[in-house]
Design a protein that fits this description.
The complex is a heterodimer of chains A (145) and B (143). In chain A, 70% of the residues lie in helices and 0% in strands. Chain A is mainly α and 145 residues long. Chain A has one domain. With 143 residues, chain B is mainly α. Chain B is globular, with a radius of gyration of 17 Å. The chains are: A mainly alpha (145), B mainly alpha (143).
């Protein structure tokens, strides 16, 4: 139960951060991405302050062998760079630049964004499901070899 | 009308960083949105991992309403109303975030904070790609 409350609070803080910084508004995000237009540097300030505070948290955690409420830190497993990451980051960027939504703001906007948010999120979830299908197929192919 | 808002941006960013910090310190989990919602969309992962993820998403989705109650006005959202564009962008973002192992929060916030070379590369690449997309759509094709 404490883990669930922590996750709920973390989610709410994340969503409030997106709302207060207006990153929940795609027009604001596109204003940052539009370097050739009337450029709005706000997103860089959001990212810089978020990274600074998160880095302090990660630094504090390095002194501990386990988090407060669980037995271990679940460290992201992949650390190497590969061609797949590079291609896919470009695809993700195209999607982000077309509308101005990435997964966090899109989900947070569900409660206030109307039909457009809903359409985007459903397509995004379908895209995520598509990854699972592709991943299974790739695993099966490599197992067969 | 809507332009550079450094104070709100820094305050909001601080809250996002705080969220990532407490989730890592408290639960040892990365606050990467696509890593949180992806397994739910794909029907993968264990039940114990699903419960905290759903709790996080509940907080995330409720937050703009909490803001509305506190501030007395709804957050402004200016979103394209072209359904085809929304679907194509959504598919690319969802598929790309999962196949690339993260999105703006996982790679961008947590990955940069952990100085992960993989995340730094991903963040630079997808931001450049998004900026190029905006350049082409706004200044060449007029979408």
């Amino acid at each position: 139960m404490p883990r669930l409350i922590l996750a709920l609070i973390a989610g709410a803080l994340f969503g409030l951060g997106l709302t207060i910084s207006q990153m929940i508004n795609p027009a604001k995000v596109l204003g940052f991405l539009d370097f050739a237009g009337n450029w709005d540097p706000s997103l860089a300030f959001v990212l810089a302050s978020a990274v600074a505070v998160a880095a302090a948290g990660f630094a504090l955690a390095r002194r501990r062998s386990a988090p407060l409420l669980d037995s271990r830190f679940v460290v992201p497993s992949k650390t190497h760079l590969d061609g797949r990451l590079l291609t896919v980051a470009v695809l993700f960027g195209i999607g982000w630049g077309l509308i101005g939504y990435c997964p966090g703001p899109a989900l947070a906007s569900l409660s206030v964004g109307g039909l457009g948010s809903g359409i985007f999120v459903i397509a995004m979830l379908v895209g995520m499901f598509g990854f699972v299908v592709l991943d299974r197929r790739l695993t099966r192919t490599s197992n067969r070899r | 009308m809507q332009h550079f808002t450094p104070v709100a941006a820094t305050l909001g960013g601080t809250l996002i960083g705080l969220s990532a910090a407490i989730l890592w310190l408290g639960d040892g989990r990365i606050a990467g949105i696509s890593g949180i919602v992806g397994p739910i969309a794909g029907g993968t992962g264990s039940r114990s991992e699903w419960t905290w993820r759903l709790a996080f998403l509940l907080g995330l989705i409720a937050a703009p309403r909490i803001y509305e109650l506190a501030a007395g006005r709804a957050p402004r959202i200016l979103l394209s109303s072209d359904p085809l564009l929304l679907v194509v962008a959504g598919l690319l973002v969802g598929f790309g975030a999962r196949l690339g192992g993260g999105c703006t929060s996982g790679h961008g916030v947590c990955g940069l904070a952990r100085l992960s070379p993989r995340s730094i590369t991903a963040t630079v690449l997808f931001t450049a790609s998004a900026a190029l997309t905006v350049f082409l759509t706004r200044h060449h094709f007029g979408i």
